[in-house]
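Why does this matter for the project? Reviewers at the last site visit asked to see concrete outputs rather than summary tables. In response, this paragraph embeds two records directly. Each consists of the residue sequence and, immediately after it, the corresponding structure tokens. Nothing has been edited or filtered.
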Amino acid sequence: MRAQNALACVSLTRGSRRRGGSGNPGRRAGASAGDSASRPRAGTSTAAPDKTLLAAVRQAIAAAGGSAGKADVVAAAGISDTQCNAAIAALLAAGAVTKTGAGRDTRYQLNGPG
């Protein structure tokens, strides 16, 4: 009799987990994987960097001899990693800076006056 009760408890427990929906106990009911992808993360901005920030990054690269890594730019310009990432992305998109290397070997070179 005890074995039957134990089996009944196990099957009820397993059955109740399946009724939860997604099968992922950490996810809220009704949430889809794409929900968070459509919203920017907290503390991030989708606005383009201002001209002052772009000028500071250009100045930092120029001061390093026209070629600098991200850590060099952050230290010389006195900006955050996030600000540096946004500024570098904008300068790359505008063609003002060229990226070479990958990972820790990434360097940014100025393409011309600006």
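We now turn to the second protein, recorded in exactly the same manner.
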Amino acid sequence: MKVTKEKEEQEELIQTESNNYEIDNKTKPPFLAAKYELRRKLYKAFCKDPDLPSDMRDKHRYKLSKLPRNSSFARVRN
């Protein structure tokens, strides 16, 4: 009797944890990639521009490296 009650409590706990996980997945924040898309494209364009001085290109390359890694669309998964 006592064993079944403990099992029921464990099953309820697992059930509520899985429900919380489903709720958290539904309220995920939007992709960081969308938020940083313009900034990332600008920094990349500045890095590739041969007309700019090298120190300015290095500065923009540094700023690009400081963006969150998840802000790249190549790193976004389904």
